[in-house]
């Protein structure tokens, strides 16, 4: 698989999983309506697909924004491969602190190395 194909998988993989959970929860709710024992849970369960779709929208919008910023030259890029970096994650202070994961090569890039690359 090409390195740049992994960019889409790493960026949108969580969104695809959240969308799958929305579809599965809709299928489960349709089965629960037929059961007299689980019919009471349908009232609360109706919100699960809606929340999963809202999470999916966020998980699509945030990486898309980062990828567009990277493509325009305003986002953070990987010093090793030049690929776009994901969201900042907190890390252990003994290991260098905050870091971002590259969507292209998958390396963890310490905050000291990507701060200077931003435009």
Automatic annotation (TrEMBL):
Q: Which residues cross the membrane?
A: 12-32, 38-62
State the superkingdom: Bacteria
Is-annotated flag, keyword Transmembrane?
yes
**Keywords in UniProt for this one?**
Membrane, Transmembrane, Transmembrane helix
Q: What is the name of this protein?
A: Uncharacterized protein
Q: Which organism is it from?
A: Lysobacter firmicutimachus
